[in-house]
Design goal:
The complex is a heterodimer of chains A (371) and B (310).
Chain A (H helix, E strand, L loop, with lengths): L3 E9 L5 E10 L4 E5 L6 H9 L6 E6 L2 E2 L5 H4 L1 E4 L11 H11 L4 H14 L15 H13 L5 E5 L7 H18 L2 E6 L2 H7 L2 E6 L2 E6 L1 H6 L4 H6 L6 E4 L2 E4 L2 E6 L2 E4 L11 E4 L4 E2 L9 E11 L3 E7 L18 E7 L9 E6 L5 E3 L5 E2 L1
Parallel strand pairs in A: 3-8, 3-9, 6-7, 7-8
Antiparallel strand pairs in A: 1-2, 1-4, 4-5, 9-10, 11-15, 12-13, 13-14, 15-21, 16-20, 17-18, 17-20, 18-19, 21-22
Helix pairs in contact in A: 3-4, 3-5
Chain B lengths: L1 H35 L18 H8 L1 H32 L6 H13 L2 H11 L7 H9 L16 H26 L3 H9 L4 H12 L1 H16 L3 H6 L11 H11 L3 H27 L19
Helix pairs in contact in B: 1-13, 2-13, 3-7, 3-10, 3-12, 4-7, 7-10, 8-9, 10-13, 12-13
Classes of the chains: A alpha+beta (371), B mainly alpha (310).
The complex binds adenosine-5'-diphosphate and magnesium ion.
């Protein structure tokens, strides 16, 4: 068990820009921290820096307060689950599990006992004599987990361990990983590009983009108070609707017009003038019988029924943020609303929605969150 | 289905030329040789051709030179196969680096392979020249601070076979090196990383990742070199003519000597048949050894390339 610290760590490959840039992070003992970010943002590199498979160009990496920059991977006592599992193809499952223990010169009897225990924990008992090639993807993933679990490492590193599995297995193993980590209490760094995985697994989530740590916080914090436009546009499905905001003033104070709705700026913003405003799809409400929320009438562009709810894309009354990150089922120049599935809607219809003003987020010219 | 039969017809047409060549130049001569080995055929002999049963084989097995030839082949294989393989592995490991100029080095070590053996043999005759001026003699003298007594390697019963072995290793090691180098480069880097994280230092990575992953290339190299060891001929013919005193004679050399120097075609055919059986046994051994293991590779999911996601 150990605490992990990254102190201003940077990693540069040859003549390329920094893949990891001035990265600082403290993972307390026992935490499961998820590194979340789009493909190529430097997540794997960060993990490999901690494993000792890469050397930082700048900064320090600490395990339990000790600088380990010069320590070999062999000495660091971290266990890693690789994205492709990297099982030893010529060894049986039993030999794969025993390998880290053999390399640490543990007594035979102890190795056998630990392998059996780990196999029981991961339900690998029936597969012990098979070779990796004779296993299914999910079984290989379990063996890779087992090889990491078997030796009580100081830290677990998992690099997208579920990305090669089908959706159902992914959900199932996600739960198992969470339970295992809880039970063992081993500090864990878990890398993924899948926000659902990050939100469900992470005690805290660190969002990375282009090698830079964007925000660190609990899943709820990240969702409710994204610290910048990137995080706002990356999390959520569909993500936050982001628009350019023009601040106006009248007798009642500063506000932003969202179509016909007058959205008053919160007093907490003080003198800072927001340049962008963000609305989660659920901040557009259909259930506003008292009419206390500012109303806006918008035209339906398309509807995605999801069974218990529907995602409705409506004409955007403001200009969308040009630099917002690409998202999946986005309809261009639209605002997404998450509405109950009770009433049918179709394209071309007009609908009046209330804006939950407390849930509107504001960002300054640089994309940093305000308030 | 209709295309099934037209498919096999097409296959037959495509195979035909190769099959014809195989029958004409390999199978037919071999059948003739087997037939010949049961006769008393000699070129220019006044005696009538007759069936002599196993008499040629009895002669072959009783012939001291032939016995010595097969013994030499065995000794040659027992020394050259392990030494050459180990050397090739060391070279492959040393050259398996991403360093500028490595390609040139690899090419240099491979160069002897593309030289014809006859050329290599002549070069080595010069290297092994007798007297203190010979390159090998003067080198050994230098290394031993003058204690080395110059000798005539190729006419020395003790040194002739080692000299042939040295020549063969020098010429053949590059080929094995290239095979093993390809094998090394096919080992996924991630296996080494996993082993390092699991606590394996350099030597144990070699023991537990490199060697098992190189299993099939190593078996291939060992079997091919063994077979080639039994086919040694050119260097013997050019460098020592089997001498001195049969010290360097080999199975093929004896076959050629019987057939062309002594015109004993039937006896040569019998040696060739025995030789064939030996090589066949070696090949069967190879098949058995190779059958056991699946092809190595990384044990991830195969349905999706690794960088498909992140
Ligand atoms: N050994 C390397 N040499 C050069 N560039 C590299 C190397 N490893 C990773 N990179 C680059 O660093 C960036 C981040 O890679 P990586 O950490 O694997 O991203 P992620 O795991 O978030 O997808 C990528 O642009 C990748 O091309
Ligand atoms: Mg990655």
């Amino acid at each position: 068990m150990a605490q992990v610290d990254f102190k201003n760590v940077s990693k540069r490959f040859a003549d390329v820009n920094a893949v990891v840039h001035d990265f600082s992070l403290c993972v307390p003992d026992g935490e499961l921290l998820v590194l979340l970010g789009p493909s190529g943002c430097g997540k794997s590199t960060t993990l490999r820096l901690l494993a000792g498979l890469e050397q930082p160009t700048d900064g320090e990496i600490l395990l339990d307060g000790q600088v380990v920059n010069d320590w070999s991977p062999q000495r660091r006592n971290v266990a890693m689950v690789f994205q492709n599992y990297a099982l030893y193809p010529h060894m049986s499952v039993r030999q794969n599990l025993a390998f880290p223990l053999r390399m640490r010169r543990q007594p035979r009897v102890e190795i056998a006992a630990k392998v059996d225990e780990t196999a029981r924990l991961l339900e690998l008992g029936a597969l012990l004599e098979r070779k990796p090639a004779q296993l299914s993807g999910g079984q290989r993933q379990r063996v890779a987990m087992g090889r990491a679990l078997v030796r009580d490492p100081a830290v677990f590193l998992m690099d997208e361990p579920l990305s090669n599995l089908d959706a159902k297995l992914r959900v199932q193993l996600r739960g198992e990983i969470a339970r295992l980590q809880q039970r063992l209490g081993t500090t864990t760094l878990y890398v993924t590009h899948d926000q659902t995985e990050a939100m469900t697994l992470g005690h805290r989530v660190a969002v990375m983009q282009a090698g830079v740590l964007q925000q660190l916080g609990s899943p709820q914090e990240l969702y409710d108070r994204p610290s910048n436009l990137f995080v706002a546009g990356f999390l959520g499905s569909p993500p936050m609707n982001l628009f350019e905001a023009k601040v106006q003033r009248d007798a009642q104070g500063a506000f932003v017009s969202f179509g016909t709705a007058r959205v008053p700026l919160p007093t907490a913003l003080g003198a800072d003038a927001p340049a962008y405003l963000g609305l989660r799809p659920e901040a557009l409400r259909h259930d506003d019988p008292e009419g206390v929320l500012p109303d806006v009438t918008l035209t339906v562009l398309s509807v995605e029924p999801l069974g218990y709810e529907q995602i409705v894309y409506l004409t955007a009354p403001l200009a969308p943020v040009a630099s917002a990150p690409e998202t999946e089922a986005e309809v261009k120049n639209s605002v997404a609303a998450r509405l109950p599935a009770d009433y049918p809607l179709s394209a071309g219809e007009s609908i009046t929605l209330g804006i939950d003003v407390d849930k509107v987020r504001y960002f300054d010219r640089n994309g940093e969150a305000l308030g | 289905m209709a295309w099934g039969s037209s498919d096999s017809r097409a296959a037959g047409v495509l195979i035909a030329p190769a099959l014809a060549g195989l029958i004409l130049f390999i199978a037919l001569p071999f059948v003739l040789a087997v037939g010949m080995s049961f006769t008393n055929l000699r070129l220019g002999s006044p005696l009538p051709l007759e069936f002599t049963g196993l008499r040629q084989y009895a002669r072959v097995f009783a012939d001291v030179s032939v016995q010595r030839a097969f013994l030499n082949n065995a000794v040659f294989a027992l020394v050259v196969v392990p030494v050459q393989t180990a050397l090739a592995l060391l070279l492959a490991l040393a050259l398996n680096r991403r360093v500028r100029g490595m390609v040139v080095l690899r090419a240099l070590f491979f160069l002897p392979v593309i030289f014809p053996m006859s050329l290599v043999a002549v070069v080595w005759i010069l290297i092994l020249a007798p007297g203190p001026e010979g390159m090998m003699n003067s080198l050994l003298s230098l290394l031993s601070f003058g204690h080395w007594q110059p000798r005539d390697f190729l006419h020395d019963a003790m040194w002739a076979l080692p000299a042939i072995m040295l020549t063969s290793i020098w010429q053949g090691v590059g080929f094995q090196m290239v095979v093993l180098l390809a094998g090394l480069q096919a080992i996924p880097a991630q296996l080494y990383e996993a082993a390092a994280v699991d606590g394996a230092a350099r030597w144990r990575q070699f023991r537990h990742v490199t060697l098992p992953q190189l299993r099939n290339p190593l078996i291939f190299v060992v079997v091919v070199t063994t077979i080639l060891s039994f086919r040694v001929f050119d260097q013997v013919r050019i460098m020592t003519r089997g001498g001195p005193n049969d010290a360097t004679t080999t199975a093929i050399f004896e076959t050629v000597r019987s057939a062309f120097d002594r015109a004993q075609l039937a006896k040569a055919a019998a040696i060739a048949v025995v030789f064939f059986v030996v090589v066949l046994l070696l090949t069967l051994m190879q098949k058995r050894l190779l059958r056991q293991q699946p092809a190595p590779g990384i044990s991830g999911t195969t349905e999706r390339p690794s960088d498909a996601t992140c």
